Amino acid sequence: MTGVGFGAFVRRAHDAGRLVVQPRMGMSSPELMRAGLLATRNATATTVGTITLDSYTRVGDLESAQLAVLEGVALNGYPIVSHETATTLRVLDGIHGAGFPVQVRHGSAAPQHIFRALMSVGLDASEGGPVSYCLPYGRVPLRESVAHWAASCELLAGLRESGAEPHLETFGGCVLGQLCPPSLLVAVSFLEALFFRRHGIRSISLSYAQQTDPGQDAEAVAALRSLCARYLPDTEWHVVVYAYMGLYPETEEGAYRLLGKAAELAVASGSERLIVKTVAESRRIPTVAENVAALEYAATVAGRTARAPLEGTGTQTYAEASALVNAVLELDDDLGAALLTAFAEGRLDVPYCLHPDNAGFSRSYIDADGRLRWADIGKMPLNGIADVRPAQGITSAGLLESLSYVRRSYDRYGPEDTRAAEPARP
Amino acid sequence: MSPFPISPAPGDQPVLVAGGISDSHTWNLVYLQLLLEEHGHRVVNLGPCVPEDLLITEALAHRPALIVVSSVNGHGYHDGMRTVTRLREHPGLAAVPAVIGGKLGIAGPCGSDEVAALRAAGYDAVFDDSAEGVAAFRRMLATLPQRALV
Questions:
Q1: Between chain B's N and C termini, which has fewer beta carbons within 10 Å?
Q2: How far is A60 from chain B (nearest CA, A)?
Q3: What domain of life does the native source organism fall in (chain A) (predicted)?
Q4: Contacts for A16 with CB less than 8 Å, ≥ 6 apart
């Protein structure tokens, strides 16, 4: 906790009463990437920058990423390993620094090559996790992901020797994007933070993605903060809320309303940072201008929202999350080994996740009141804790209805319910 | 869709479902599995990020009635070209029906040139993620031989 780096920047902003807002931005062209970072920095908001990598770099297919760079083919992100170091230094020159930290976002179960590349250009903040960038994300065995992430944390933590304070954010609070009950998101996000801590990282953020019900989301963030306060010693930590990660509203009004709710959740819950989504989200990768508009709108809503965090431990979400966390921690002193056993035995079980190392017995549903609940807890240790209501066999139409629940809810508001008229929540 | 991720009925030819080589999205694949099962097909769901070699190995092992490649991350066109090119190079897989669909380009739907290129490279059909694309996919399913619905 040296007062330098990504985590310290966010801490200072929070202490000054400001929410840090951040896009999920990545373009393969160095010129466009630099323009995107500059636009983010210059937005009327307290911002940090993002370099989101392309998916070839994420899966380690560096040959394809390199070929795209050579042929000038546009990718869905910035190929930081394949661009020359000097090229990325030019992208960052005069932009990245103490007043504008930049985080590299990727999605890799084996991120050593990415961490080396970001360290070589003077960056020290990234994100992911051994579970959240493995299970829902591809086919790398969980055992390999845990080993890769342990090595990668230690690689990044080596920067501390030179006085830096490298930062990692968990992606565990966003697993599968939608339809995962918040207690499991909280548990995985927390366990990944503890994993980072045990492998040498001292500046950590914990993610939580907005789900279907604002009240349940507030409970979830409070539960996450309570777990951190209790079990994450000697660590600079903060919580980052993600605007909804599932099927996004298609109308501009709906998209802004949902983003506004995410900003309210972030501030009211005492969270320090927000990852925004844009009006273009339902159709394509957003432009820089769309990202800036989203950042500024989120900052405006944040500015008129008061902090009003819930008490953390008295809720259903906390009861489930802490039961899951404790069931994992008691398996093994080595957290990586404990996570492997937990998934092998189904003590952690991500609903609908297709990965061979996920038990696949759990199921979730959206209740009539909008809260995400368990239809089947599989072998997770939630007997007597979770309120389980077995659902009838799900159909493709039923799944689509659940997946589009948030989109429909936010799109159906009429023009009289515009963002300007939207009341701020106390 | 239980047990997971391979639905039970043995004997007949399954439909192979696969995400694009670099595409981590899952919900499109879960949806496709349910939809195919409702049309009477057994599904082998390979999940997200399926490399060409894995798809070829699984296709040779299962002799599927159809291969469905689904992608929404913007690399669908390029990944899809690679996959089908490798697939069609394999003597045993030159004729297996294969289709691709989803959000195939980073700037939105593919243009007609890209659709033509995907078909020329070996896909029997290309579907975008519009309502019309989904309807066309359903019509195509109705033309496939299927096991008895139980």
A1: C
A2: 9
A3: Bacteria
A4: none
Q: How many CB atoms lie within 10 A of CB A240?
A: 25
Q: SS3 helix, strand, coil % of chain A, rounded to 5? A: 45, 10, 45
The minimal CB distance from A76 to the residues B1, B2, B75 is found for B75
Is A395 in CB contact (< 8 Å) with chain B? yes
ipTM of the complex: 0.85
Q: Which class for A276: exposed (0-12), middle (13-18), buried (19 or more C-beta within 10 A)?
A: buried
Three-state DSSP class for A368? coil
Helix (H) or strand (E) holding A42: helix A30-42
Tell me which chain B residues have a C-beta less than 8 angstroms from the C-beta of A139. 47-51, 54
Q: Flag if B27 and A360 touch (Cβ within 8 Å).
A: no
Quote the minimal CA–CA distance from A402 to chain B in Å.
11
Number of Cβ within a 10 Å radius of residue A122: 14
The domains found in chain A, sorted by start residue, are 6-303 (3.20.20.240), 320-408 (no CATH)
The answer to whether residues A6 and A253 touch, using CB atoms and an 8 Å cutoff, is: no
| Residues of chain A contacting B106 with CB distance shorter than 8 Å | 74-76, 284-285
A58 to B34: CB separation less than 8 angstroms, yes or no: no
- Inter-chain residue contact A399 with B31, CB threshold 8 Å: yes
Question: Contact, A244 vs A210, CB < 8 A?
Answer: yes
Task: Report d(CA A139, CA A356) in Å as an integer.
Answer: 8
Residue by residue, pLDDT tens for chain B (150 residues) are: 443 455 544 457 999 999 999 888 999 999 999 999 999 999 999 999 999 999 999 999 999 999 999 998 878 898 999 999 999 999 999 999 999 999 887 666 678 899 999 999 999 999 988 888 889 999 998 887 765 443
SS3 content of chain B, % helix, strand, coil (to 5): 40, 15, 40
- Three-state SS for A281-311 is CCCCCCCHHHHHHHHHHHHHHHHCCCCCCCC
For residue A57, what is the nearest residue in chain B, using CA coordinates?
Answer: B22
Residue A394 DSSP SS3? coil
Which chain A residue has the Cα nearest residue B130?
A283
- pTM (2 decimals)? 0.92
- Preferred mutation among B22, B25, B45, B79 to probe A, highest tally of A CBs within 10 A: B22
